[in-house]
Write a structure and sequence with these properties.
139 residues; alpha+beta; 2,3-Dihydroxybiphenyl 1,2-Dioxygenase, domain 1; eight-stranded mixed beta sheet; 8 strands; globular
Length: 139
């Protein structure tokens, strides 16, 4: 079954924001990784290495995810472009279809490709200005 969750982007204060959300809703993070946890070829500036590369946090049946966006990945995020919808299709083929269909008339920022965390992943902005992440987790 395809799932849809929200992915928040921060300019260096992701951990602070998610600690706040956890204080409101309780529970624990499913995962929290910094850029230091990434393989060497996924390099970011030394001053950004302790930033959150990925955090996943369940709130009821939904999952709120987030990360800090390193400066090399584009301009700082602002209110309105600091979130993405993250869709997780059931198959690689469905991931390709969803990515292709959502990007029609929009722009691809990161083409679908195999990633070091074991997923087939890509990002885009649809023709309505909404940011999307397509993430098929390969077993």
């Amino acid at each position: 079954m395809t799932t849809l969750n929200t992915y928040l982007s921060f300019n260096g204060n992701c951990r602070e924001a998610f600690d706040f959300y956890r204080s409101v809703f309780g529970g624990e993070f499913s995962i929290i990784q910094t850029f230091r946890d990434a393989p060497p070829e996924f390099s970011v500036a030394e001053e950004e290495m302790d930033g959150v590369m990925h955090v996943s946090y369940s709130i009821g049946s939904a999952v709120l995810m987030g990360s800090d966006i390193p400066s090399q990945f584009g301009p700082p995020r602002t209110v309105g472009n600091n979130f993405s919808l993250s869709v997780s299709p059931d198959s690689r083929e469905e991931a390709d279809r969803v990515f292709r269909d959502l990007s029609h008339g929009g722009s691809v920022s990161f083409p679908m490709q195999d990633m070091f965390w074991g997923a087939y992943f890509g990002t885009l902005t649809d023709r309505f200005g909404i940011n999307w992440q397509v993430n098929f987790h390969q077993e």
